[in-house]
Specification:
Elements: E1 8-11, H1 18-33, H2 56-74, E2 78-87, E3 94-102
Parallel strand pairs: 1-3
Antiparallel strand pairs: 2-3
Length: 106
């Protein structure tokens, strides 16, 4: 199972504006932990969590596609550069580390 709540956010750039990075992390955390359909005025906001029902190799691909698509739509200050997965051998949980680069509206 991919543990979205423990996702790591890694930025490939340094910036003097720490407050801006904190705001982006907060916005991404809300986006990635909200289920699609839960937001009353925007039913597409959030992730489609159907990836959790698939086998792990398919689940990872579905997750990456979903976060790329939703990040492009809702958080234009960054774009997804890469996603790596770290598996906890004791629990079997998979933690995504998401690498970002500056987006179109930086």
């Amino acid at each position: 199972m991919i543990d979205v709540k423990k996702a790591g956010f890694l930025f490939d750039f340094t910036v003097q504006e720490n407050q801006k990075i904190k705001d982006i992390k907060r916005c991404l955390s809300i986006l990635y932990t909200t289920r699609s359909g839960e937001q009353p005025m925007d039913r597409e906001f959030g992730l489609d969590f159907s990836f959790q029902d698939a086998p792990i190799n398919i689940s990872k691909n579905m997750f990456v596609v979903e976060i790329i698509k939703k990040t492009e739509k809702y958080e234009k200050r960054v774009s997804v550069e890469n996603v790596e997965f770290i598996t906890d051998p004791k629990t079997g949980h998979v933690r995504p580390n998401i690498h970002f680069q500056k987006g179109a509206e930086w």
